[in-house]
Amino acid sequence: MHKAAVDSCFDVAFWLLDRALDEGEYLQPQKMHRLMFLAQGYYASARHGEKLMPATFVHGPEGPVEPTVYRAMERGRPMVDTSPLGEEVTHVLDSVWRQFGAKSVERLNSAISNHPPVLDARENGEGTKISYDAIVEFYHKALSRNIKGAGAGLAKKTGDALAPSRVLRPKIMKSHTGKTVAVDPWTPRRVED
User: Fold this and answer.
1) In this predicted model, what pLDDT tens digit does every residue of 50-69 receive, in sequence order?
2) What one-character-per-residue DSSP string does 35-102 give?
3) Rounded CA separation 193/191 (Å)
4) Which of 39, 61, 122, 128 counts the highest number of beta carbons within 10 A?
C-alpha cells in the first residue's frame, strides 16, 4: 500500500470546515464525515486505488464515520497543526464539495447508505469497519465503468452513485495558443504485484 496523499485525516476535515466557513455555512459533523468518506472514495477512483488520507471509516448510526476525527472533535475544533494540501488533493476535495456540499445531511445519508461498501458494513452492525478494498472496488472499479451500458446488474449495485467523471471536474488551463482547454492529470495504471 502506498503512502496516503495527506498526513492526517484532520487535513481533510479542516479543509472541509474552512471551505464551509468561506461560504458562510456551518458544516454539521455528520455531513463532514460523509464528505470525507466520499472524498476518500473519489480520490481512490482518480488515483487508481491510492488513499487520500490514513482513515479507517466505520459504520456509525447514520452512515460512515471516521472515529478518530469524531472523538477528537466532540467538543469542537481541536488545536491540531495541519499540512498544506497538494494540487491533486485540493482538486478532488473541491470537486466533492461542489457536487455534494450543498446537499443536506439526510440526502447524503440516504445516498451513501446504498453504496455497497456501506451496505456490507451495515450488515455486521454499528462500529464495523468499512473495508478500504471495498471502497476502491466500488468507487474506482464499478463506478469508473460505463454505468449506462453495463446492464441492470451493475446499475442495481451502484444505485444513485455518480460516476467519477461526473464528480471530478477537469481542470481548466490555457494552451500554448491561449485557448482554454479542460485537462485531466495523467495517472498511470497501478500494476498489482
Assistant:
1) 999 999 999 998 999 999 99
2) HHHHHHHHHHHHTTT--SSS---EE-SSSEE-HHHHHHTTTS-------PPPHHHHHHHHHHHHHHTT
3) 6
4) 39
| Predicted TM-score (pTM) above 0.85 | no
Phi and psi at residue 35, in whole multiples of 5°?
Answer: -65, -35
In 117-152, which positions are buried (b, 16+ CB within 10 angstroms) versus exposed (e)?
bbbebbeeeeeeebebebbbbbbbebbeeebeeeee
Query: Where do the structural domains in the chain lie, given as residue ranges?
Result: 9-168
Residues 6 or more apart from 82 whose CB is under 8 A from it? 8, 10, 11, 14
Q: How far is CA 161 from the centre of its chain?
A: 12
Rounded Cα–Cα distance for residues 170 and 176 (Å): 18
* Alpha helix (H) residue ranges in 124-192: 132-135, 152-158, 164-167
Query: Residue 164: which of 90, 116, 92 has the closest Cα?
Result: 92
CB 172 within 8 A of CB 182: yes
